[in-house]
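haha ok so turns out i had the wrong file open the whole time. this is the CORRECT one, sorry everyone. sequence first:
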Amino acid sequence: MGTMTLLFTSTTLVYLAASIFYLVSMIGKRPQAGRIGRWLLLAGIIFHAACFAVQHSTARGTPVTSLHESLSFFAWCLILLFLLLDLRFRLSVMGAFAAPLAFLSMVASALSPNIVVQLSPVLKSWLFPVHIMFAFLGNAAFALAFGAGVMYLIQNRMLKSKHFTGIYQLLPSLDVLDRVNYTCLSIGFPLMTLGIISGAFWANTAWGTYWRWDPKETWALITWFLYAALLHGRLSTGWRGRRAAIFSIIAFIFLLFTFLGVNLLLSGYHTFDAFAVL
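then structure:
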């Protein structure tokens, strides 16, 4: 077993273990399990970063040029942002969402062809890793906003129906979930904006034009407008609670299509058989 494979497998297993501890913490109401899960995730992103370092030295380039690499990098960004968010809110219940999602992303990555896609010389630029970092961190922030939105709707439905199940006691208050949702949106939108801008500058250095109306670019712009409308509604017209949660879920569905659907179903400069996920 090679070093990279060992690090990748170790990371996946650590994310699985963290998922189990977070679920035990949430369902069994054991805070100590949540703290163990947090330390496991911290170890996981260190193993994961080491895996990227080995991959970078092997491929001699940014290791996000295939579906396998992209899903893995998304998992790392998701856990990194969750741990930073957890410093403020200390919500183990969000760990019970983030850790399993990262584990599933790693499993999907493992099932995808592990191929090294070399960028053509015209595409090699320092803007590529900058573009990738902004875009993937933005996607991770929106994934956490989606998770908070789903939890908000579940909690809100039980409160309105006065039909309380066991999960009611496990979820944070509606106010906390709404603040988590807004915080994630506030982080994700600037990152997505910077990702689009850096991508435009990268395209200009490679092809001499900032925008080519490639399917990925078009859908990224549509998704950007959706999140812009959501943030505008929250800041200007007081959108909060249920409406904001539903809108963040809808926007994330568009984001998923932009992230995966466009690459797998449509042809263009950003498809996986070309050179990159973004």
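Residues 1-118 form one domain.
again sry for the mixup
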